[in-house]
Structures are given as C-alpha cells and as structure tokens.
Fold this sequence. Notes:
single chain, mainly alpha, 0% strand, Ribosomal_uL29, Large ribosomal subunit protein uL29, ribosomal protein
Amino acid sequence: xxxxxxxxxxxxxxxxxxxxxxxxxxxxxxxxxxxxxxxxxxxxxxxxxxxxxxxxxxxxxxxx
Length: 64
C-alpha cells in the first residue's frame, strides 16, 4: 500500500487497517517460529507498514 493510499483514508479506516496488519504480524511471527523463511522476510515490511499507519493517524488527529 502506497503512502498516498494511506493518506487518503479516514482515521477510522486506518485504525481498522492497523488492527488487520497487527493480526498479520502475529501470524507471521508464528510461521517464523515454525521455521518458514518467507514469513521472516515479511515481518519487517509489515512492521514498517504499521509504523507508517500510526504516523498518519497521529498526524490526522493533530490536525483536528
């Protein structure tokens, strides 16, 4: 998901997206512990995505 797509969403949509990504991160962590290498590579990407979403949420809440 690109930054412009994230910025175009409302705060509520971003919160829902953050929840989904945290769930995905939990699933990837379990797969990593089982020894699946692809999951280990995706974890950092998902973490960065969550951080981007949190940053945009904080920016939008500060505007109000």
